[in-house]
Design goal:
The chain has 583 residues and is of the alpha+beta class. It has 25 helices and 17 strands. The protein has 3 domains: 197 residues, Aldehyde Ferredoxin Oxidoreductase,  A, domain 1 (4-Layer Sandwich), CATH 3.60.9; 201 residues, Orthogonal Bundle (Aldehyde Ferredoxin Oxidoreductase Protein, subunit A, domain 2), CATH 1.10.569; 153 residues, Orthogonal Bundle (Aldehyde Ferredoxin Oxidoreductase Protein, subunit A, domain 3), CATH 1.10.599.10. Strands 2-1-6-3-4-5 form a 6-stranded mixed sheet.
Length: 583
């Protein structure tokens, strides 16, 4: 599992090569993808330059152990201008595994809109002008009928948002999974690459099946029979809605407060009882955390109805529900359906709409910019009109909304209430300083980098004494452990199952010997490379700051103190500087 497929779209050529040393040194997943991106010297590239690469990578546990279901995408982000990294579930990792590929590196630009079909180690380039402009959902249906493949296929595609080079365009993977953040859809669109269809017929033989089976059975049992994954199976991530609301940690009306009076309507409990249509799972996962809600839309004077199944998770519920003051699940699902078809990052779209609404309230924009549309929190129908205008992408203001909240705030004002970190719209936590420090300093500016919100929650519960230095250490230690899990491409929902001790035994059963010190060395090396990529592309730790609004609100831990935040940023910066100084 050390084969890398390199594709040049401009030349319509490809080659496969092996790199055992790279795989042994970085394990796979985010480790390999980071090293490949670092070696391609992207610091002088526009994200939409044909030389800018797209890298997909899987890890040692993909296709082998339960809940190792992620594929890592690495690219230069058009949203932030530096490191772009996004993870997706589905069956993409399994299709790459079946094709015998550990990584796929794509450069160049197709002369006309096209898609590529990868079957084992062979690549076909197929003209796609007939499906350019189709929604991301329609594209999947068309290609599933058109491309039979060798085995079970994975279909990776963009919608009109990516085609129009929106920096918040995402990439849809199979059913309800996404490379959601940091603009990979726009990068694919810049390459005229509408979709990738991957399939294969290869299988890996276990050299020591008894040892492997023992570890596999242990992981499976913990996933199915223990409480570790219960919440993800039962209600999914929407289970977070009510607990966060209870501790004043649920962002509401563009992060104006942490409590939403309509939270019960958007809760995992209500969604499950009244809207859940189906639960599905990523390949090789026994949990089934993907919850599909049913939306019925009438036509022909309400005589007939069309039914849609739409994936809902906590982050879209926050971004397009509580943060827009929408408590109607039908309205939420309607917005999600529009976003899914267009192929936007649901979080960034919600953050941008929230900024626009507050900017309208404060008079920074008006009906001249919105073409007569009046923006109000809670107004589903108006938000639908705005999204459809954004999809058309023909008028200046709506073109600008397509570029995200940071861009809009720079153009129209309102930086103080544009809730983004490093250019990326914030995830759904208003729990306190550690959540925000994690967003600010993490390599992806994501809640998934170090789960700072979890530290905040421990402090609120009384399980952890507040201590700035200790909290910074916890953030960095968690992020570096996640580099290992992400190199193995394990779903982070299973992070309580995949402990360091179990990871070492699971690697040993595959014939890979690593010690705890080895894993720590790998994680620090990955961390350093990621920060070097970021700094080379303009990330400056001396110029970081919070959206001013966050200093004025009540978080789960109360109001944030400027002096404390300043010290925490300095402490984090000093630790990163120390990491970068190591040869």
């Amino acid at each position: 599992m050390s084969k890398i497929l390199q594709i040049d779209l401009s030349a319509k050529s490809y080659m496969v090569y092996e790199n055992d040393k790279l795989y042994n040194e970085y394990i796979g997943g985010t480790g390999i993808a980071t090293k490949l991106l670092y070696d391609m010297h992207i610091e002088n590239n526009n994200p939409y330059d044909e030389k800018s690469p797209i890298i997909f990578s899987i890890g040692s546990f993909n296709g082998v152990y339960p809940i190792a279901t992620k594929t890592i995408a690495m690219f230069k982000s058009p949203l932030t201008g530096n490191l772009g990294e996004s993870h997706a579930g589905g069956r993409l990792f399994m299709s790459m595994y079946d094709a015998g590929l550990s990584a796929i590196v794509i450069t160049g630009r197709l002369d006309v809109p096209s898609y590529i079909a990868i079957e084992n180690e062979n690549v076909r380039f197929i003209r796609a002008t007939s499906i350019w402009g189709q929604s991301a959902l329609a594209t999947e249906r068309i290609l599933r009928g058109q491309e039979k493949g060798i085995g079970k296929r994975s279909i990776v595609r963009i919608g009109p948002a990516g085609e129009s080079l929106s920096p918040m365009g995402n990439v849809l993977v199979d059913t309800g999974r996404h490379f959601g953040r940091l603009g990979l859809g726009g990068v694919m669109g810049s390459k005229n690459l509408k979709a990738i269809v991957i399939s294969g017929s290869k299988r890996r033989k276990m050299d020591n099946f008894p040892a492997f089976n023992k570890v596999y059975t242990e992981i499976y049992s913990k996933a199915v029979h223990s409480a570790a994954m219960k919440k993800y199976h039962d209600l999914g991530t929407p289970q977070n809605v009510l607990p966060l609301n209870k501790i004043n940690g649920l962002p509401t009306r563009n992060f104006s407060q942490g409590f939403f009076e309509g939270a019960e309507y958007l809760s995992g409990e209500n969604m499950s009882e009244n809207y859940l249509a189906q639960q599905i799972a990523c390949a090789n996962c026994p949990v089934g955390c993907i919850h599909l809600g049913v939306l019925r839309k009438s036509f022909q004077d309400r005589i007939h109805y069309k039914t849609f199944k739409i994936s809902y998770d906590y982050e879209p519920i926050y971004a397009l529900g509580t943060n827009l003051s929408i408590n109607n699940p039908d309205g939420l699902l309607d917005l999600l359906n529009i976003i899914e078809k267009a192929g936007w990052d649901a979080i960034e779209a919600g953050i941008t709409l929230a900024w626009a609404t507050e900017a309208f309230e404060k008079g920074l924009i008006g009906t001249k910019e919105t073409k007569g549309i009046i923006l109000n929190f809670g107004d589903v129908e108006t938000y639908k009109k705005v999204l459809l205008k954004m999809r058309e992408n023909k008028e200046e203001f709506f073109e600008n909304l397509n570029k995200g909240s940071a861009y809009c705030a720079n153009k129209y004002g309102g930086k103080e209430f544009a809730i983004n970190f490093g250019g990326l719209g914030a995830a759904g936590y208003i729990t306190g300083r550690d959540a925000f420090i994690g967003f600010l300093m993490g390599v992806r500016h994501s809640h998934l980098d170090s789960a700072g919100y979890s530290i905040d929650e421990k402090v609120v519960r009384g399980d952890l004494e507040p201590n700035e230095g200790k909290e910074i250490d916890m953030l960095i230690e968690e992020e570096e452990w996640r580099f290992i899990l992400n190199s193995l491409a394990v779903c982070l929902f299973a992070r309580k199952i995949y402990t360091e001790e179990l990871v070492i035994r699971a690697l040993a059963a595959l014939g890979i010997t690593k010690t705890p010190e080895d894993l720590k060395g790998i994680s620090k090396k990955i961390h350093k490379l990621k920060y070097e990529i970021k700094i080379a592309n303009g990330f400056n730790m001396d110029k970081l700051g919070f959206p001013e609004k966050l200093y004025t609100i009540q978080t789960s831990r109360g109001k944030m103190d400027r002096a404390t935040i300043k010290r925490m940023i300095k402490d984090y910066r000093d630790r990163i500087a120390s990491l970068l100084s190591v040869n």
